[in-house]
Amino acid sequence: MFDRLQALADRYEKLSELLCDPDVASDPKRLRDLSKEQSDLQEAHDAYTEYKQVSEQLDDAKLMLGEKLDDEMREMVKMEIEELSQRKTELEEIMRILLLPKDPNDDKNVIVEIRGAAGGDEAALFAYELYRMYTKFADTQGWRCELMEYTENDLGGFKEVIFSINGKGAYSKLKYESGAHRVQRIPVTESGGRIHTSTSTVAVMPEVEDVEVEILDKDIRIDTFCSSGAGGQSVNTTKSAVRVLHVPTGIMATCQDGKSQNDNKQKALQVLRARIYDIRRQEEEAKYAGERKSKVGTGDRSERIRTYNFPQSRVTDHRINLTLHRLDSVMNGDLNDIITSLTIAEQAEALERETMGTN
């Protein structure tokens, strides 16, 4: 581990030199690439730097303990040794986690699809509340949301909603949200006061560039039609809505909420690329499904991952057996505890695999 950390530290210092080079400063692309590489190494570099400092201080304190000291000073040195030893252990754990292979999609923006599933109108209403929950969470992170496509029911719920969330690390935090979300409560449509169970599905896909998923003009079919939303002079009068079909895969994407037909086309292609990439990613992961199954799930939207119980104000994530009794705050976008717990569970699993692989 320490050889890898030293190599990383050497690379970090080399990047610092390169970033001061006038030739690099005059090349925007190289400057951007090197800056990003250094930023990615920053956390591990800082942890390793502190680790070396703590180790040196600990060695000095142990040497001091062997000298002739009065009782008060000896106790102070012992306390310092205890604190430094504890911090050294903490840093070793932090560095092991930082050296784990990073998901290449973690820094990307995301496209989120939410659909009402079992439960009819109640499922659609819950889909709207999930959309609201994620947009409020995005606000707390300083991320930007953009509504791309939606279909409402008569009660104001979403039969389907597609939106993008743009912000550094969006995928790293929201990737755990893919799956079936179950709600237990008395629906507004229920006159007898009985608790019903409904589900909505969530799919979180990393946004991908053209170079990552190439879509050839000959492989797509584009149809235009009139928008069907409420309001706006162009609705039902101008064919501004766009539907794009990727013929080789049969994957389709539709958008009608852009400012123009071209805007809708670009957004539909953006969703199409994300869907194609997501299917390819899941196919790759399926090859290893027999070897391992992640504790935090496969990202399959049919997999039940969480229950929101309104009568008990309870949220339970079934993958890690986490239960929180503050449903209101969660539905208002306070997802930090859930996401942190899922991240820790995934890191622990990855550390266990790495340990087994080295034995």
Low-confidence stretches: 230-237
Oligomer state equals single chain
Pattern of helices and strands? HHHHEHEEHEEEEEHEEEHH
Distance between the termini: 14 Å
What Rg do the Cα atoms give? 26 Å
Strand content: 15-25%
Helix/strand-derived category reads alpha+beta
Residue-averaged pLDDT, rounded?
Answer: 84
Principal-axis shape: globular
**Number of DSSP helices?**
9
User: In order across it, which strands form the biggest sheet?
Assistant: 2-3-1-5-4-9-10-11
- Helix percent band: 40-55%
**Main sheet overview:** 8 strands, mixed
Q: What is the secondary structure topology, with strand pairs?
A:
Blueprint: H1 2-19, H2 22-25, H3 28-65, H4 71-98, E1 110-116, H5 121-141, E2 144-152, E3 158-166, H6 170-174, E4 179-185, E5 196-206, E6 220-225, E7 241-246, E8 251-255, H7 261-286, E9 304-309, E10 314-317, E11 322-324, H8 327-331, H9 336-358
Parallel strand pairs: 4-9
Antiparallel strand pairs: 1-3, 1-5, 2-3, 4-5, 6-7, 7-8, 9-10, 10-11
Helix pairs in contact: 1-3, 3-4
Structure notes:
The structure is a single chain. With 359 residues, the protein is α+β, with helices and mostly antiparallel strands. 47% of the residues lie in helices and 20% in strands. It contains nine helices and eleven strands. Helix 1 crosses helix 3 and helix 3 runs antiparallel to helix 4. It starts with a helix and ends with a helix. About 2% of the residues have low confidence.
